[in-house]
């Protein structure tokens, strides 16, 4: 294996990394801080606390995969790197949930778009959740710091045609567009970010904060699922965790107990509220799991006259915020427009259909272009989000009702996406909807979109951005943690991940997670050292 | 995958209407109806390794989740889902279908216990004669279902006004499409040339020889 690979080198140099599937005996370990989850939030927290000289144990349910495993193959990647082998859905099965389950969490499979939390979002939080300390001015230095840590800068290489068509369509129609900042270093412009970056160019948790923490003596257990935080009086005493067997999904029977002065939960939206619910963490106002958000995504595909090759090139490089905050922060649902990469397995799962029709759909893949809309949920009384609860076996599940308010936004988004694709020269456009035919012109599309039922299952919906469920706020009746991610009722518990957002972000969330986790970890380190 | 428990409600207690009511009113993914192993014979055990007579091609694959009945179900459905993309030549066609069923099994193993349980309900519903006839309206047992009958079944579930059936349609076609079109041997069907050659040549993980 290449000696330039940070992980391979670190393992060789004796990092304290344990593959829990190899454990044969129950055991107990102890540290200053136990961190659950190794994604955007967990990684950041681990590096900052370990560098401050605290002893840290990281717990990750998924396994450690790194460069040697990243072979640009969809089927292996979906089975090993994603939650529930890429089969995670909302409770009624209507929304597909893309979420990471491996060391590095979703950052190992994300598409590297790196946006600061939009200012209207931060101000909305201050105005509605008492989060005065998170105003844009106060957060600026923290964003600066994390952009440096993750090498974030606008993508200066030409966008691939898939993205450029979004730009062209916006130009034609007078809609604003911008170049996306990405967290990459020496990117080869390959397009495989979603299946694990094969070159280590992506500066997600796996190549930055996780190695940073392990260099500073942090211990990592992977293939170890956090089951329950056990309280002793009003503090958490220890975590009970289950080792997974080599198949990655079945517990082997070995239990690991982890004791610490402080516990940081960073298992992300769905995962973190799930753990708190399993642990019966005090929740006098029934807030855990509530207000879970997903940036519901709908999509259109276009057939272009020229080859697009949507499987190659940086997956996301152009976006449009024309419709995101246009109606005000809390008006009718706004949406951000982006482009998804299209590889064969993903495309055949996203484009609904079977038989000859599906064969003919997929035959066109090299000429296909797709636009997605990410609806900004949680900013309006008619968008209260979903609820995380536990299934019989204790695993978390998200119930997410799609309200009329959201359907209205999704329908408008269909209009905009089709309009943009035809303006950019599409020959035909199809909505990701069970009833949509290929549409031949913008006027035909407009009429069809007004007619087609906006219903669960018929409209194909997705989410790659899970947020909320352990929302922050100053009022304990409304929230689970305060503006520093500190639990309102349990003094040695913090939450450092996307689950603390009180609304959705209105932009791809990773930089928001990195930034808040960094700010809150610096404070936590000070407290624990002091 | 452990065996489904034997304490589930026997189907005889339900009829099609109450199934639909439960489905319409509830938020379950084809929930509330699950046929016990007792009713459907002992078919809910993973099929393990099929013998050569069953597969015509014994490649030694061990099924970990799909049962013999599930395999029959997919043998009947795949010609309707991906058949048109396949060669008509019997032997390669049979092999492509067998390989796709194996990849479906492999994928489902990683779905984890909770989603496996949902799939088990769906497959039991489709495999158990009474529900196959009353709910799916498929009159013959799956090995005797023609491709056009399988296609008609899929169309019914796709166009149904009942979300539960749409969901079943998506579950069956998505896993099949992904396992089929996502397989390197079928990439040419979507005009995907595979990962760039130059990058594979330059990357250490492809040069382990
Ligand atoms: C395909 C895809 C593309 C994306 N693209 C972008 C993008 O371009 N830009 C962007 O900003 N965002 C993107 N995102 C989203 C972004 O990566 C996430 O919002 C972000 O990583 C969330 O950080 P987190 O710390 O909350 O959770 P994660 O990074 O997901 O980490 C949580 C970790 O906790 C682990 N865990 C869960 N439960 C347990 C348990 N019980 N015990 C132990 N461990 C547990 C999980 O396995 C996971 O590894 C994308 C996501 C996906 C899936
Ligand atoms: S596009 Fe860049 S960051 Fe993404 S997988 Fe390729 S090399 Fe890695």
UniProtKB/TrEMBL annotation, chain A:
Q: From the Swiss-Prot or TrEMBL record, give the protein name.
A: Oxidoreductase, GMC family protein
Q: Does the keyword Flavoprotein apply?
A: yes
Q: Where is the Glucose-methanol-choline oxidoreductase C-terminal domain?
A: 383-517
Looking at the record, the residues that make up the Glucose-methanol-choline oxidoreductase N-terminal domain are 78-297
Organism classification, top ranks? Bacteria, Pseudomonadati, Pseudomonadota, Gammaproteobacteria, Pseudomonadales
ATP-binding listed as a keyword: no
Q: Which GO terms describe its molecular function?
A: flavin adenine dinucleotide binding; oxidoreductase activity, acting on CH-OH group of donors
Q: Which family does it belong to?
A: Belongs to the GMC oxidoreductase family.
Automatic annotation (TrEMBL), chain B:
State the superkingdom. Answer: Bacteria
Q: Which InterPro entries does this one have?
A: TAT_signal
Protein name, as recorded: Uncharacterized protein
Source organism per UniProt: Marinobacter lipolyticus SM19
| Source species taxonomy | Bacteria, Pseudomonadati, Pseudomonadota, Gammaproteobacteria, Pseudomonadales
